[in-house]
Amino acid sequence: MADHQLDYIEPTELQELLQDTSKKAGADFRVIDVRLADAFSKSHVPSAVNVPTDDFLAAPDKVYEANKDAKVLIFHCVHSQQRGPACARAFANAAEEKQGPKPRILVLKGGYHEWEKQILGVEKDRAAH
Q1: CA distances, 55 to each of 90, 92, 104, 114 (Å)
Q2: How many Cβ atoms sit within 10 Å of the Cβ of residue 111?
Q3: pLDDT of residue 38
Q4: HSE-up (13 A, CA, CB side) for residue 39
Q5: Exposure class string for 66-99: b at 16+ Cβ within 10 A, else e
Q6: Helix (H) or strand (E) holding 72
Q7: Is residue 31 within 8 Å of 49, Cβ to Cβ?
Q8: Closest listed residue to residue 34, CA positions, set 114, 94, 108
Q9: 58: burial class by Cβ within 10 Å (0-12, 13-18, 19+)?
Q10: What's the pTM value of the predicted model, to 2 decimals?
Q11: How many other CB atoms sit within 10 Å of the CB of residue 125?
Q12: DSSP state, residue 55
């Protein structure tokens, strides 16, 4: 397995992508939120799908098969420092092993925390996550 170099997308860039009427969420891009289902159910990026980290890492091939046709995949967790990047790399490895289509893989810079702060205007105590 290769240690894939990751590219990042800023929350403002993701917001522009979500607002771009020429792009279709699910086909042109997918946001994959790897936080726990409880956190996802409380609030999430519009159009995001939830695949908790443990589920993702237990079956990356399954996640690959379900998402290989998207043009761009954007992964994130709370801060996108560990779980989001780990899942992005696991997806890249699965794509490499399958030798199938490989969407462009991005990680949301700063994770959901930065999304809330920059896009939703919500400032939370970092220790509360």
Answers
A1: 12, 16, 22, 24
A2: 25
A3: 95
A4: 19
A5: ebbebeebbbbbbbbeebbbbbbbbbbbbbeeee
A6: strand 72-76
A7: yes
A8: 108
A9: exposed
A10: 0.89
A11: 6
A12: H
Q: What is the DSSP string of 3-35?
A: -PPPEEE-HHHHHHHHH-TTS-BTTTEEEEE-S
**pLDDT at residue 122, rounded to an integer:** 65
Tokens describing residue 51 = 């695949």
Residue 51: other Cβ atoms inside 10 A: 24
Please give the chain's pLDDT, 129 residues, in tens.
456 789 999 999 999 999 999 999 988 999 999 999 999 999 999 999 999 999 999 999 999 999 999 999 999 999 999 999 999 999 999 999 988 888 999 999 999 999 999 887 665 554 444
Q: How many residues are given for the chain?
A: 129
Residue type, 86: A
**At 14, phi and psi to the nearest 5?**
-65, -40
- Residue 128 makes CB contacts below 8 A (sequence gap 6+) with none
- Tokens coding 9: 């997308």
The residue to which tokens 């159910």 are assigned: 41
